[in-house]
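It would be a great kindness if you could assist me with a short task in structural biology. I am sending you one protein, given as its amino acid sequence and as whole-number tokens for its backbone shapes. I would ask you to consider whether the tokens describe a fold that such a sequence might reasonably adopt. The full record is reproduced below for your convenience.
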Amino acid sequence: MSADPNRLDHCLERRGAQRFEVHLPLAVHFEGRTVPGFTQDLSGRGIFFYAEAALPQGEVVELTFTMPSEITLGENMPVRCRGRVLRASASQIGQRSGIAVQLDSYQYLPSDEPIAQFVRVSAASAAGGSSGPMPR
């Protein structure tokens, strides 16, 4: 039995992103709502977190949280990520769902911008719309 080397490279490449197991609070923004959550692990390509929301596969979400210095190799940095839900499942932790998101983009926010205040990246924010403080 011979292995296709292109297939093997593809598998290795998919698993190549370093994953960090970190438990951080985050805000999940979708469909004009914001719900609290916390991370389980993250990499440059994706994030797995728990949140008090049921999100369908393919849902576009924006996440805001503070990237710890252990990952940035500098200071703690507020970050905003945008991605799509790959999968979601009910968890044993109350009513929270475990959610895997493939990240499409991210941006570091100014360090003086409070993470609790989120300005949506959408046509509405261009017109001055924003959401209030993140629930805790």
In short: The chain has three helices and seven strands. The domain at 19-126 is CATH 2.40.10.220 (Thrombin, subunit H).
